[in-house]
Amino acid sequence: MPASEYAVVVTAIANLGEFEALARARLSPAAYAYYAGGSWNEQTMRDNEAAFARRRLLPRVLVDVSAVDPSTTMLGQRVALPIGFAPAALQGLAHRDAEVVPARVAARAGLVYCLSTFANRSIEDVAAVGPGPRWFQLYVQADRGRSEETVRRAAAAGYGALVLTVDSAGAGYRERELRDPILDPGSLPNVGGHATEHGPIGALLDGSLRWDDLAWLRGLSNLPLVVKGILDPLDAARAVEHGAAAIVVSNHGGRQLDRAPASLDALEGVVDAVAGRAEVYLDGGVRRGTDVVTALALGARAVFIGRPYLYALAAGGQAGVARCVEILESELRAAMILLGAPTLAALTRDRVA
Ligand SMILES: Cc1cc2nc3c(=O)[nH]c(=O)nc-3n(C[C@H](O)[C@H](O)[C@H](O)COP(=O)(O)O)c2cc1C
User: Helix 289-297 vs helix 43-54: angle between axes, to the nearest 10 degrees?
Assistant: First the structure.
């Protein structure tokens, strides 16, 4: 569809939730099942959003909020908003140019784009969209040599951090995918070799990875290590002890272990365990600017969104993803003004009940 038609579609969108129905109409049933699904009963997936809905925000009045600044730093790099694009596989299902499109929007907006190992576009093609805060998410493969090569490519292409996903020793039991499997995931240029041309991508996950392997990983490059998929405070402490510069509190959008806690409910325990030794981010269920301020008030430095930008990409291409960012920024600024928080530092725990 031409960009102009996309633009007509996306101007009518007022919140992130509205992208889903449009995306569903454009995606193949199997692609929609892959994007939308969670594991088992999808309890955790629902809980991620419900956990935000349960929290109340306490406004503080008569604070000068005539100038609101939603910018921050992530791993020392300035970002325009405390919101990044979570790594998500197979963006070619949503758009011909796949990961290149949201990576370009993120770069222009000054937001972190995290490229998945299982992307349909290469590390180098995505880097070619131009400078921007850009990270690479790694699934360690059973063939460690391939992972070593991937990490070196990401470092050479200027990615600013290595995000190791640790909640995926195997794939979650996802019924929607079982009923409606993706028959052709497209090419996976970041896994190396030709191992991926047949069989599900879940078969590429390596269940033998252990804490001790983090030293090996850190030795492959100078990139700071972000450990993604932590819910247990003890694991958070272990990650810090093994050199993590940051942690992403995440249950993979409810796609891995079902009935794992909602990310927001796990956040405070992790923040306390980390005790300022690393940055803590959160993903899972972030749909509104009010969700962003809630997570930040409870100790997250930033959040990531997953499905919303995938749906925006499918629904409206580049204009859709740009609209997704614009909505989140408007909502975040409005929430900061009404909470009486002119900066993100003013989002303290006592703002959330
Ligand atoms: C379709 C899809 C594919 C994903 N692929 C990956 C991936 O390749 N690597 C990864 O670390 N996380 C992956 N995730 C998890 C996201 O990074 C993130 O944790 C999750 O989407 C956040 O929840 P949300 O979708 O509710 O925002 C994927 C999520 C979705 C929905």
Answer: 80
* Index of the ligand 1 atom closest to the CA of residue 37: 31
Domain of residue 149: give its range: 3-343
Q: Please calculate the CA angle 329-34-258 and round it to the nearest 5 degrees.
A: 85
Q: Is residue 349 part of a domain?
A: no
Question: Ligand 1: does its nearest atom lie under 6 Å from the Cβ of 36?
Answer: no
Judge whether 161 lies within some domain. Answer: yes
Q: How many domains does the chain have?
A: 1
CA-based nearest residue to 172, from 39, 25, 9: 39
Angle between helices 289-297 and 307-339 (to 10 degrees): 70
- Does 195 reside within a domain? yes
Read off the pLDDT of residues 239-266 as tens digits, 9 standing for 90 and up: 999 999 999 999 999 999 999 999 999 9
Half-sphere exposure of 183 (CA within 13 A, CB side): 3
Q: Is 281 in the pocket of ligand 1 (CB under 6 A)?
A: no
The DSSP bridge partners found for residue 77 are 74
Q: Catalytic annotation on 198?
A: no
Report the length, in residues, of the chain.
Answer: 353
The pLDDT tens digits for 108-162 are: 999 999 999 999 999 999 999 999 999 999 999 999 999 999 999 999 999 999 9
Domain with residue 202: its CATH number is: 3.20.20.70
85 within ligand 1 shell (Cβ under 6 A): no
- Indicate whether 103 belongs to any domain: yes
205: tokens are 């996950």
Cα(6) to centroid(ligand 1), Å: 24
Question: For the residues of 44-82, what is the DSSP string, one character each?
Answer: HHHHHHHHHHH--B----S---SS-B--EEETTEEESSS
Take residue 189 and report the two structure tokens written for it. 């240029």
91 CA to centre of ligand 1 in angstroms: 11
Q: Does ligand 1 lie within 6 Å of residue 252's CB atom?
A: yes
